[in-house]
Amino acid sequence: MTDRQIQEQTGFRPNPNETVPPQTANDAFEDLLRFMAAKQTRAQVIEELKAVDPSKIVFAVQGVKTGPPLTNLELMIGNTVEYCVREGLLRSPIQAVGAIEGVRQEVLDGGVFVGTEKFPKQL
């Protein structure tokens, strides 16, 4: 499934040139879960996650406009992490890199991709 098809299904329209923090954590997590659910198979999710560069997430969180363009998934993870840092759930974007690596490894090991008490998501 292409990014365009996912955008049509989910209504998510990222601007690749800038990061805009979500208004609420719900927005960020819902966008991320909708995006991943639209991939339909765990194999597709794994392929997407393998391509995520945690250093690009830090750029997104810090609002750096230069550097390599972000994928939709990286932009959404960046927005989610940005909210978590702002709300004190993560201490820094660098801590988020460890969280992203942990999520990626958990998926590769066959675990849960992402979830909270409010938004559980099992792959």
TrEMBL record:
Annotated region (Disordered), positions in chain: 1-24
Biased composition (Polar residues): 7-24
Identification of the protein by name: Uncharacterized protein
Highest classification ranks of the organism: Bacteria, Candidatus Curtissiibacteriota
